[in-house]
Automatic annotation (TrEMBL):
Gene3D superfamilies in the record: 3.40.50.1100
Swiss-Prot/TrEMBL cofactor(s): pyridoxal 5'-phosphate
Protein name: Cysteine synthase A
Pathway info: Amino-acid biosynthesis
InterPro entries: Cys_Synth/Cystath_Beta-Synth (IPR050214), P-phosphate_BS (IPR001216), Ser/Thr_deHydtase_PyrdxlP-BS (IPR000634), TrpB-like_PALP (IPR001926), TrpB-like_PALP_sf (IPR036052)
Organism lineage string: Bacteria, Pseudomonadati, Myxococcota, Myxococcia, Myxococcales
GO molecular function list: pyridoxal phosphate binding; transferase activity, transferring alkyl or aryl (other than methyl) groups
Keyword Transferase among UniProt keywords: yes
Domain Tryptophan synthase beta chain-like PALP: 9-302
Keywords: Amino-acid biosynthesis, Pyridoxal phosphate, Transferase, Transit peptide
Amino acid sequence: MAPRVGSLWDAVGNTPLLRIGSLSRRTGCDILGKAEFMNPGGSIKDRAAKGMIRRAEEQGLLKPGGTIVEGTAGNTGIGLGLLGRERGYRVVVTMPDNQAREKYELLEAMGVEVRKVPVVPFANPLHFFHQARTLAEQHGWFWANQFENPANGDFHYETTGPELWEQCEGRVDVLVAAVGSGGTMSGVSRFLKEKNPALRVVLVDPPGSGLYCFVREGKMEGSGSSITEGIGIMRLTENFRRARVDEAMRLSDQDMVETLYHLAREDALVVGTSAALNVRAAWEIARRHQGEGLRIVTFLCDHGSRYASKVFNADFLASKQLEVKPLP
């Protein structure tokens, strides 16, 4: 029999759904995490990258030997780098200069051209989003534009949502997710709401992001800052505009760190910051419905090894006045 052979492109998606055993037992609810860190590039952003490249190729925007440029906090750049390089494209990314060093190193190892830019408000033309757009305009490159490109959310509608529905055998009570570009929330919430209109969709937001206020009050306001990477935003993106969200909660970096270490030590799940925030929100919801048997699903967006120099570094945590403490 000939061996079954695929490519990295083929390996995106169809990730396992894992039960968070320690927290499910404590609450009497099923807390389930989709293991997106098992995508070939190590994060959920591989799906966005595949969806955007696929549509660009279909529309003739990406041709053999072309260049992809994107502004990213890291994971979308890694997905674009992985899949783009495999398909023969040059990949250039603009990134804020305060991200975990592991992301820069991985991108550069794949031959991606990394341009670090200062951390500035979105209105500033030096923001990584605007710099990517400018490069595309100057050179005629394909700008992936994950925030405004509907191919991002559409790919989640086509793949992530149906996978979850099938894995849960048609029963999902609550969907919980943090938001960066809005692609995951857009695609998955739309698909699952079509299947189950009674589904509750909960957005979890870190400090410094305006989406919590937007969902609750219709205005984009936020204060403070967060060490979580790749989530939180102060504008309404085209992808998030299409999401179907019922409620929002805001959690602190301390909440996130407590959950991060609990998952690593109690469930052997070494995940990144957004995943820890997602699980903490799912757990808070489960605590409110103690013993009711709700099925709550969320995303384990990437692996914690991508943040070892930060959140798994005691000196870094101390510099941010954060402590490793048990869950309350």
